[in-house]
């Protein structure tokens, strides 16, 4: 994956998306995935913007349904976060089945599970901040359903390293895999991994028939668990220069949209709140990516590591920000560009999608 920070290059990525081949190939390690998730997660582009771009290129929504569904999944997880708030930090629907331990298997963190596709995926996560969605599911299944660890520490580990870090998508997807946010557990055996990752391994800890998973003892390889401490290395900054006669626009880790109020003459502040990153830590690479997107695409932006209360104390005028469930700001909230107008917590994705389709088609 080549990580771009130029808005022009990001728009070119949308235009280059192979939305027809996407449906049939996305589960394969070399499938026609778009690599747009880091930019959607950081709020540089929106799901609505992606949809409008591909439709304007001549693709009718009903011919690219799987592609649009994947955009809808992102909005669906965000709607659950808005509706449930901190409840998504815990088992949402059910107590996690098979949850016997806290921590994460050390061999997963060390990329030494013995399963080539998984270990290569973890190494790629560390090096470039991205991991294929199928590999994410394999890892979650191994950590939670095979090693029987509670999902939360492993989910924080993955979120920490992802450039497309989206806590709702990450936490709720882990819960979907482990049965805390779904009605069954997801398993993948070695045969499945070989198929989608073009490997030919045998005699690994996952080289079993599916009916064996329910009775499988924790493999010795996954016995040793650790509980890593994650901290976010935030930069040293100084208080921004505020022009009191101008409104102030707050950007943050989830809103780096260069088109947002771009005609306004305003103070533009990328606010990195230590309290947010204490609760949801991310890596130095993730913070660097965030700052690079801001500096390259948002003219005159000032970066400040501080809490909203600190900013409020030095801003005499109006404050504007975009809606997000993490925001605890006071001021004028602008709506996000959602894929559809469907809002609220639906009991399942497909109940939500059914409503979306009525609007989209």
From TrEMBL:
GO terms for cellular component: cytoplasm. FAD binds at residues 22, 67, 164-166. The keyword Flavoprotein applies. One of its GO terms (molecular function) is FAD binding. Pfam families: FAD_binding_7. GO terms for biological process: circadian regulation of gene expression; entrainment of circadian clock by photoperiod. It comes from the Bacteria. InterPro entries: Crypto/Photolyase_FAD-like_sf, Cryptochr/Photolyase_FAD-bd, Cryptochrome/DNA_photolyase_1. Residues 67-188 form the Cryptochrome/DNA photolyase FAD-binding domain. The record marks 102, 151, 174 as: Electron transfer via tryptophanyl radical. Binds 1 FAD per subunit. Transmembrane segments: none annotated. Its cofactor is FAD. Keywords: FAD, Flavoprotein. PANTHER family: CRYPTOCHROME (PTHR11455), SI:CH1073-390K14.1 (PTHR11455:SF18). This is Deoxyribodipyrimidine photolyase. It comes from Limnovirga soli.
């Amino acid at each position: 994956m080549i990580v771009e920070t130029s808005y022009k290059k990001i728009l070119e990525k949308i235009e280059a998306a192979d939305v027809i081949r996407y449906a049939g190939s996305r589960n394969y390690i070399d499938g026609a995935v778009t690599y747009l998730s880091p930019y959607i997660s950081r709020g540089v582009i929106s799901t609505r913007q992606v949809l409008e771009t591909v439709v304007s290129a001549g693709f009718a929504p009903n011919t690219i349904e799987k592609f649009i569904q994947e955009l809808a999944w992102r909005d669906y997880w965000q709607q659950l976060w808005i509706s449930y708030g901190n409840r998504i930090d815990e088992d949402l629907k059910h107590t996690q089945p098979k949850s016997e331990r806290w921590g994460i298997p050390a061999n997963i963190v060390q990329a030494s599970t013995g399963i080539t596709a998984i270990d290569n995926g973890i190494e790629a996560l560390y090096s470039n901040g991205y991991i294929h969605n199928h590999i994410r599911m394999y890892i979650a299944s191994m950590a939670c359903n095979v090693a029987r660890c509670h999902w939360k520490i492993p989910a924080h580990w993955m979120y920490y390293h992802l450039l497309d870090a989206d806590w709702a998508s990450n936490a709720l997807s882990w819960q979907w895999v482990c049965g805390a946010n779904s009605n069954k557990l997801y398993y993948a055996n070695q045969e499945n991994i070989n198929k989608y990752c073009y490997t030919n391994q045998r005699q690994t800890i996952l080289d079993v028939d599916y009916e064996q998973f329910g009775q499988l003892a924790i493999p010795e390889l996954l016995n040793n668990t650790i509980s890593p401490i994650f901290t976010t290395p935030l930069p040293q900054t100084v208080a921004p220069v505020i022009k009191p006669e101008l409104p102030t626009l707050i950007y943050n880790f989830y809103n780096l949209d260069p088109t947002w109020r771009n005609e306004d003459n305003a103070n533009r502040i990328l606010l990195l709140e230590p309290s947010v990153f204490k609760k949801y830590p991310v890596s130095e690479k993730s913070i660097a990516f965030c700052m690079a997107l801001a500096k390259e695409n948002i003219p005159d932006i000032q970066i400040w590591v501080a809490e909203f209360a600190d900013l409020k104390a030095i801003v005499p005028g109006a404050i504007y920000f975009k809606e997000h469930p993490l925001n605890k700001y006071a001021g004028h909230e602008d709506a996000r560009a959602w894929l559809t107008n469907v809002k609220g917590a639906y009991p399942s994705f497909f109940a939500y999608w059914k409503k979306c389709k009525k609007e989209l088609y």
